[in-house]
Amino acid sequence: MPEFVQPAVHLIGWTTFNAELMRKLTGWTTDAEGGQALAEAAGRLCFKSWQKPNPATATNAGYLANILRQQHESVVEHATATFYVTGVSRSLLTELSRHRHISLSVVSQRYVDEANAAMVVPPAVADHFGANAGLSSVAASARSVYEGMVNVLTSEGMKRKQAREAARAVLPNMTETQFVITANLRGWRDVLRRRWHVAADAEIRRFAGLVLAELREVAPNVFQDFPAEPFGTGE
Ligand SMILES: Cc1cc2nc3c(=O)[nH]c(=O)nc-3n(C[C@H](O)[C@H](O)[C@H](O)COP(=O)(O)OP(=O)(O)OC[C@H]3O[C@@H](n4cnc5c(N)ncnc54)[C@H](O)[C@@H]3O)c2cc1C
């Protein structure tokens, strides 16, 4: 029977910052580290504002709050975050790939066998009908047609890659995909503004919530103006 999977978002890459070298070069220090320290360094370089006379902007949180309020978001482009993502659907991938400031490396449906592909039930369907929402037979039937098609085409001499690229046409949108995704923090802010939003598709909104939770762990100051609940709630 097909396996139904849940989304998982793992932060596997994240910008580091050489605080000691920066202190030697400028005399400036900060109370943060990693990408958010780097963003502050980049911002302070612009005005050579290595001194911190104003208490409101003396901390990394205060400094970045001011920068973000003024929409000087280019300074957060210096930091990137990379996630290893599993348990999301091809539908989600289609929507996500519309964002032009992300970098994606996706499991190939031409090279990788999908005969045992896992499935992702859309959250609204799962909420209404239960965990696999009675979709097992749909998934099993699609996978069986896929497998049959690959077998016939390869037995007639077609390369496996070509047989799989043809047979994948019968796989549903709920087929699981996996990818590595990178964006700089400005890019992530832009994606999350649109997808951590009540108007967004429920699966990509759930994905956005997971990404935001991870980003808040490493860069809370860069996402301090983002709401706990999706944008648009209560409007
Ligand atoms: C709720 C929702 C529903 C949607 N429904 C549909 C739909 O039905 N059909 C559909 O096709 N899409 C749909 N989309 C996708 C949407 O149209 C955008 O493609 C997606 O949100 C990416 O936004 P973007 O193109 O503004 O930004 P990105 O590609 O993420 O780029 C970020 C920003 O960079 C700038 N930028 C990027 N490229 C250029 C450029 N070439 N020229 C100038 N400025 C640029 C813009 O300021 C842009 O806002 C939907 C999105 C959402 C959130």
Q: In a nutshell, what does this entry contain?
A:
With 235 residues, this protein is of the alpha+beta class.
Basic shape: elongated
Helix/strand/pairing class, anyone? Answer: alpha+beta
Helix percentage: 40-55%
In percent, how much strand structure appears in the residues?
A: 5-15%
The major β-sheet equals: 4 strands, antiparallel
Bound molecules: flavin-adenine dinucleotide
Write out the strand line-up for the largest beta sheet, numbering strands in chain order.
Answer: 1-2-4-3
What's the SSE pattern?
A: EHHHEHEHHHEHH
Uncertain ranges: none
Q: What is the helix tally? A: 9
| SS elements, strand count | 4
What's the alpha carbon Rg, rounded to whole Å?
Answer: 22 Å
End-to-end Cα distance, whole Å, is: 43 Å
- The overall number of domains is 2
| Rounded average pLDDT | 95
Account of the protein in words:
The structure is a single chain. The chain is built from 9 helices and 4 strands, in the order E-H-H-H-E-H-E-H-H-H-E-H-H. It has 235 residues and is α+β, with helices and mostly antiparallel strands. It folds into 2 domains: 15-79 and 185-218, no CATH class; 82-178, no CATH class. The protein has a 4-stranded antiparallel beta sheet. Helix 2 crosses helix 3 and helix 6 (136-155) packs antiparallel against helix 7 (160-167). The longest helix has 20 residues, at 136-155. Bound molecules: flavin-adenine dinucleotide (FAD). Flavin-adenine dinucleotide is lined by residues 98-101, 190, 194, 199-200.
